[in-house]
Task: structure prediction
Amino acid sequence: MAASLISPIVPFNEISLGDASALFAETDHPIAVRTLQRQCKARGVPLTRHGRADHASWTDLLKVHAAWVDGR
Result:
C-alpha cells in the first residue's frame, strides 16, 4: 500500500498555478497560467512562491476562475 507524502512546506489547500491551469484545461473554459496570475492579482488573491512556481488556495482559484468565466 502506498503512503501519500504530505509536504511540510506547502499548505494542504494550495496548488500551483500550472497544475490549476492544467485542471481548468479539462473543462470547457481553459485558462493560461499568466492569465490566472493576472486574475489573482486583480482580485487580491495571495500568491506564495515555492521554488519557481506560484501557489494559491484551490478554493480561491475556483472563485477566480468562475468570475473570469462569468466576465467573458
User: Anything to note?
Assistant: Helices lie at 17-25, 33-43, 58-71. The chain has one domain: 14-71.
